[in-house]
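chain below, 90 aa
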Amino acid sequence: MTALPKRETLNLRIRPEVRGVIDRAAKLTGKTRTDFVLDAARLAAEEALLDRTLFSVEDTAYGVFLTRLDTPPHANARLARTMRTAPPWA
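prediction:
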C-alpha cells in the first residue's frame, strides 16, 4: 500500500456570503468545498502562467509567422460555409 502524498494547509479569510456561494457551487458539482476551491485556484494559476508563456523563435521563423498572419485567407468552401453560419451568440 503506497502512502498518499503529504498535503499542506492553506488558510483563508472569507466573508460568509462568499463562502455560501462557494458551498453552493461545490455541492452542485459534487465536490467538497476544499476540492472546489483548489480546482478553481489551480485553473486560475495555470491560466495566469500560460498567459505569460514566452515562445522564442529564430528571426526567419518569426518573419514567416508574421507573413502568414498578414496574408488574407484564400477563398474555399469551408471558409465560405463558416462565413454563412450564424454565430452561437446571435
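The chain has a mean pLDDT of 93. The first helix runs from residue 16 to 28.
thats it, cya
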